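Protein modeling request. Please complete all fields; requests missing the sequence field cannot be processed.
Requester role: graduate student
Desired output: 3D structure, token encoding
Chains: 1
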Amino acid sequence: CFRNSGNYPRQYRNWQQSASVGEMTAEFELPWPPSVNHYYRHVGHRVLISRDGRRYRENVAGKLAAENVAKFTDPVALHIELYPPDNRRRDVDNSLKCLLDTFTHGGLYADDSLIHKLTVIKREPMPPDGMAYIRIEPWNGDKMADASGTLCSSL
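Delivered output (155 residues):
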């Protein structure tokens, strides 16, 4: 369930897609993901996705499908801002496995190999539940547009 507690650092965005200069950008906010330590469970000699991990994946995949978020088929740049639920010490990479697998499972992109640029920022806590802000856009190979819209290489 997505909620607007009024203390989000940005104007609340929920599954927005915006087209700019012929390119698709998707922005959305997600619940705080399970860490890699809670994402997997060992059952005998097998390693499985935990109940919480499966629930998270299905919740996000359902939202992606319900909102008809376009599937990216070319290289992408993925920007993730993590707002933890509390002040405990957390490694940003512990949240990535669940998020990236969820995006593949939900059909946001065909495979993790399409991610050419990944930016992850840990922000201030957002009690009580935390959240992850996501922005995904086509990867243009570190090229920027000048004032006329012409692409040029960045320095």
